[in-house]
Amino acid sequence: MPKSKRNRPVTLSKTKKKGREHKEAIVNAIRESAEKYNSVYAFSFENMRNLKFKEFREQLKSTSRFFLGSNKVMQVSLGRSAADEIIPCIHKVSKLLRGNSGLCFTDLPKEEIERLFNEYEEYDFARTGSMASEKVELKEGSLEHFTHEMEPFLRKQGMPVRLNKGVVELVSDFVVCEEGKPLSPESARTLRLLGIKMATFRLHLICRWSPEEFELYIERPDDDSGGDSA
């Protein structure tokens, strides 16, 4: 009987080597971008949606390059201090990479980048654990936008429902979520069924570096430690 591939031992040194090579490739790509493009922006994001961000990145593909991932790797790439920075004053960007952060290297004019980032806003369904932006309450009575086949599923979400002549009914008022409280898995699923989008994917510029100047958009506490983005 042939041996299962899943049972084969894995040499940890190989996986570590691959991880190291991947990080080195990112470091080199960031350093090459710093030399190639006219300016670099650090930015933060909230409610990241990978597909939407990929579309945004594709729009700027011919003029810009983006990096997301480990803040520590990005910091090392640029240099964490004036002593080890790869280009004069670019360590100021490195010091501001914390939390959900990224880098945008670009040849676009400053005004264009500011407009693109400030105007960018994409609405989506909130995920489990997100804070509800409003209270959503369903009143007792028929729920005509739900088909009778959905009645068992709605009950599993905690909704007090029943079928009345093939129509789904709420037998009492039901609060789906409370403003400012984290969404449960059931609340997130119910909001999706209701078509209510509470999450907004946004990008915020933190700072801008160019050979001529450094500009700060958002004040952040000075911190050399940095952190890995989620």
Automatic annotation (TrEMBL):
- The Large ribosomal subunit protein uL10-like insertion domain covers 126-196
Database matches in Pfam families: Ribosomal_L10, RL10P_insert
User: From the Swiss-Prot or TrEMBL record, what is one GO molecular function term?
Assistant: RNA binding
Q: Name one GO biological process term.
A: ribosomal large subunit assembly
| Transcription in keyword set | no
Nucleus listed as a keyword: yes
Q: In what ranges is there compositional bias, type Basic residues?
A: 1-20
Residue ranges of the region described as Disordered: 1-22
Keywords of the record, alphabetical order, are: Cytoplasm, Nucleus, Ribosome biogenesis
Q: Where in the cell is it found?
A: Cytoplasm; Nucleus, Nucleolus
Coiled-coil region list: none
Job description of the protein: Component of the ribosome assembly machinery. Nuclear paralog of the ribosomal protein P0, it binds pre-60S subunits at an early stage of assembly in the nucleolus, and is replaced by P0 in cytoplasmic pre-60S subunits and mature 80S ribosomes.
Give the multimer and partner information. Answer: Associates with the pre-60S ribosomal particle.
Q: Which PANTHER family match?
A: MRNA TURNOVER PROTEIN 4 HOMOLOG (PTHR45841:SF1), MRNA TURNOVER PROTEIN 4 MRTO4 (PTHR45841)
Name of the protein described by the UniProt record = Ribosome assembly factor mrt4
Q: Which organism is it from?
A: Carya illinoinensis (Pecan)
